[in-house]
Amino acid sequence: MYYCGVCRSKQLIKDAINENDFLKNLEAAQVREIVDCMYPKNYNKNDMIVKEGDIGQALYVIAGKSVRGFRMCSKLAG
């Protein structure tokens, strides 16, 4: 049996998509297309991944670690 770290990552992404209320109704071919274009990216502690109000240009799947979300006070958000 061949273990493939990339294959495992792709399965985690596929599972995450299929469990997401917004994405779970996609057809298998659509899910495959999304999974095939995704790639791993590592972030350091305290890196900002996405900021509220940013126009969405990516789909993030968080695996194995946790991420904290913060909402800026409207007075500070400018």
List keywords for this structure.
single chain, 78 residues, mainly alpha, 37% helix, 0% strand, globular
Q: Which spans of ≥5 residues are poorly predicted at pLDDT below 50?
A: none
The overall strand count is 0
Sum up the overall morphology in one term.
globular
Proportion in helices:
25-40%
Strand fraction equals under 5%
The class by helix and strand makeup works out as mainly alpha
Q: Distance between the terminal alpha carbons, to the nearest Å?
A: 55 Å
Q: Rounded to an integer, what's the Rg over CA atoms?
A: 16 Å
Overall pLDDT metric: 79
Order of helix and strand elements from N to C terminus: HHH
**How many DSSP H or I helices?**
3
Largest sheet: none
How would you summarize the topology of this molecule?
Elements: H1 5-19, H2 28-37, H3 74-77
Helix pairs in contact: 1-2
Please, could you describe this protein's structure?
By secondary structure, the protein is mostly helical. Helices cover 37% and strands 0% of the residues. The chain has helices spanning 5-19, 28-37, 74-77. Helix 1 crosses helix 2. The radius of gyration is 16 Å and the shape is globular. The N and C termini lie far apart (55 Å). The model has no long low-confidence stretch (mean pLDDT 79).
